[in-house]
Structure prediction request, 766 residues.
Amino acid sequence: MKHRPLPVAVGLAAAIALIASLSVAVAGTKSQGSTARTAASSYPAPKVPNAAAIKKKYGGQKITFVGDSVGNGHVRDLALAKRFTKDTGIKVSVVPHPAASDQAYSQLVRAFSQKSSSIDVAMIDVVWPGAFAPYLVNLKPALGAQSKIHSAGIVQADTVGGKLVAMPWFGDFGLLYYRTDLLKKYGYSAPPKTWSQLFSMAKKIQDGEQKTNSSFYGFVFQGNSYEGLTCNALEWIASAGGGTFVSGGKSTINNSKAATILDAMRAQIGKTTPRGVTSYQEDQTEHAFDDGNAAFARNWPYQYGIGATAGSKVKGKFSVAPLPHGAAGHSVATVGGWQLAVSKYSKHKNAAIEFVRYMTSKAVEKFDAITNSNVPTIPSLAKDKQVVKTNPYLKPATANTPRVARPARFLGTHYNEASKVIYQGINQILNGTSAKSELPSIQSKLNQILKQR
Amino acid sequence: MSTVATPAPVPRRRRRRGTKLRRRQTRVAWLLLLPALATVAFVAIYPLGKTIYQSFTNQEFLAGITPTKWVGFDNYFGPTGVIHDTIFKNAIIETIKFTVITVTIEFALGLIIALVVNSHFKGRGLMRAVMLVPWAIPTVVAAKMWQWMLDDVYGVINDLGIRLHLISHPHAWISDPATSLAAVSAVDIWKTTPFVALLLLAGLQVIPGDLYEAASVDGANAFQQFLRITFPLLKPAILVTLIFRTLDALRVFDVFAVFFGNRPDTQTMAIYAQSTIVGDGHVGYGAAVSVAIFLIIGLFVIIYVTINRVTED
Prediction:
């Protein structure tokens, strides 16, 4: 064995690497398993109505559903798809979409532009129907009647040119999560009303807690350069009286109120927030808060259910409030939410429509609200006692916070591009650039995009 | 070795195309080359041609919303063309910085490692296998792993640094613009140095051992041997390695995508092209960006090949 040939070495290395990467993957799923605290077992997925008739017509067909990936969303999708397949014989393969919604958007753009039949049902963001309408099936003939039980405002957003291109699935709005035990410990009787109150409370609690937990920080939110930051920034700016990015066909983001609140946020990075918060998305936010490493968090309602289940470190120790506001404004919450749509290029449109019918039914939305703490898009369900009991954020104090919408209807197919300009610019500010030097360029780029329309 | 036939001096014939045999051979050669040529045309020339064509149009990804028109050189030299695009300019600078840093360090470390594992010692085979492990791990997996290790709150790097009193408080290596390029370069160096070492090792192995024996007999020391034997004979392998690595580094996508997503100040050329085409849906403009990237990379190839020619003469 004087000269061990190179190929042997390469092969051996590849084998070791494969094992190493597999162990990383296993470690990944393990940690996910322990944090994915699911309550699905206690509340079974509802039966499919008229299952026999559907089975007779479409049984045996296969459809692909591009679904949720944040929190326990994928677990819920799998449970519902399993039930649907059992009852109707329609096989549903569930594929989680990328967690950053702008990447999920890109995935659908690719599929639609290639006229791909690989996606039958897709979950689409509340800001996308305008861009995707030409590629989606009009659901009005089949699901028009069912759409009437959903919130009229959302149904209207899903209706493009008289066609119902998507069905409301679950709603979303921004909430402030706070640790009730820590507020009490540090002598606060109520959650913060203004951003400056939040910062000073976060500082005091962090200073105290870091003595025993070096991973503890005051406040976490979605600061990564992605769609979630557009949602967060909209709340900061609108709640400080700085407008909602676009008004009267022109961008309004370059104003002194917006600059003040953005600079205030920039000053908190690495002080009352982890320095790395500028790369946080929803999951990192939720993990920090539910692992007991944050006093305050901005997130969507889904986090409530995860925090309230048995495995969570903050079970019974947290509550929700409207997000704080600036000196001159009032609390607001960015409207989010997800719809289900059927692709025009689907080979099994009718089976896909039946799946959407089931997924957006009252029984399934109740299941989702109770097991996954998502906001029902059916107003009567949002008042249902059992639903409100598991989702206290549906009580008027938080549920009635005025909503602000991202400027999708002014931008249509250019929304994603415009949102990128916003979140990239804001991310630069959070990473150290002053708002004054960044906002004019965001504004002029937005105006350029608005002109393209 | 009984009969050694002295070869008859072959009269140097002028190249003639005319002979029947030669014509037939040429025909056969073309025929045999055809599958390869067709493949190259299909996978390289056609997409490149199509990209160049698209770069002269205003095509959008979700077609049917705006009809595609021919716009001439607007995507290149128009008021919003590639040459005025400050974000793209920033991406070019970022990518070139990354390329220079990583290729230099990878080459230096790779050469040292190759020389070490080329020498004779016990357990050399195992060493060669172990050194390749980082390279064999899929890039995205490696990047995710490092992202966790470099995290400011939970990362092991900060923890180690504090325990060893190298740093006083945790640092956000990836998020802080001051260290993000260094962080991403470190990961690429960790991952790709083994590949560089492997290519150089292959080059070292074809250098005949008796050259060194002769040099030793002549009294040349190790350094002289390296300078006069190893380096000149390794040059072809070095050139191939540098070209491979440079081109790879210039079109880097994965580590940056995992580390920074859509962060504007750390975009590479490839990420900018991808987000222009798929994210914004501007196929025409994105094609112009891609052609610009093609030209930039082409420039580097020309530089390398020229250096090679000049030093060979």
